[in-house]
Design goal:
Strand order of the largest sheet: 6-7-8-3-9-10
Mean pLDDT: 88
Structural class: alpha/beta
Number of strands: 10
Largest sheet: 6 strands, mixed
Distance between the termini: 60 Å
Order of helices and strands: EEEHEEHEHHHEHEHEEHHH
Low-confidence stretches: none
Shape: globular
Length: 257
């Protein structure tokens, strides 16, 4: 469904990503993980059409997204890393705005918006301004907005940010249901335990280049490690965090220099 082919992007001559390629098939949940500054955000901005690459293509169902960005954007739902919403609107008004921008019929917008808010535990808040919502509540509104138009491709960037335990569990179950309906899902997260639990494949990126692309079980087996967190640390050559932690505490205790 979605194919990323040899993407490269530089800022002021400094490469952010280099030769990034992968595919996401219908019904597949693909994790995209890497340290801060690895190129995840740049990749997502190119996939969503917010940035143009210096080289490479993004194909959706075989066609370049640049050939018809409007049609492509109608086919995907996106939960960004930062919950930027119009806080003067209520949750219901925000979803109504999104539905109108998606050219959905008014009756369908009202039905889906109210139903989604109720299912996500926001029914009693639907007429309250978003400025009164907690971070997790804003995140649930964004999740509802991404589902409103029944997209074929879903891009979730740190979707668990701010969610409580119950909402996070619901979201993990939601991912499985979406995949069962044939949706293609790109899941960007730093919560490696969840990535390992829900993703069919995991792509590891560091310093702008893809280091691995395989099911979590294959990554663990090939590197003979117990979990995805250990795999991630080895692939990106993560520093000895225990030593750094001890040095931080030691620095705190310094009284004279």
């Amino acid at each position: 469904m979605l194919e990323v082919k040899a993407l490269s992007k530089s800022y002021r001559g400094l490469p952010a990503i280099e030769d990034v390629s992968f595919r996401i098939r219908p019904g597949e949940i693909v994790g995209y993980v890497g340290p801060n500054g690895s190129g995840k955000s740049t990749t997502v901005k190119i996939i969503t059409g917010l940035l143009e690459p210096n080289n490479g293509l993004v194909l959706f169902e075989g066609d370049s997204i640049r050939n018809n960005l409007t049609s492509y954007r109608a086919a995907f739902g996106y939960v960004p890393e930062e919950a930027h919403v119009y806080t003067h609107l209520s949750g219901l008004e925000y979803l109504q705005l999104v539905g109108r921008l998606r050219n959905l019929p008014e009756g369908l917008i009202d039905f889906k918006a109210n139903k989604l808010l109720a299912l996500l535990g926001l029914e009693s808040w639907r007429h309250s301004p978003i400025s009164l919502y907690s971070k997790g509540m804003k995140q649930r509104v964004l999740i509802a907005a991404s589902l409103l138009h029944d997209p074929r491709l879903l891009i979730f960037d740190e979707p668990l940010s701010g969610l409580d335990v119950v909402s996070a569990r619901l979201f993990k179950d939601l991912l499985q249901q979406l995949a069962a309906k044939g949706k293609a899902i790109l899941y960007i997260s730093h919560v490696l335990e969840v990535v390992e639990l829900v993703c069919d494949r995991v792509i590891v990126i560091a310093k702008g280049r893809i280091l691995a692309d395989a099911p979590p079980s294959e990554l663990r087996t090939s590197l003979q490690l117990a979990n995805l967190e250990s795999v991630f640390a080895q692939l990106i050559q993560q520093e000895d965090t225990q030593t750094v932690a001890r040095d931080l505490v030691g620095t705190m205790a310094v009284q004279n220099v």
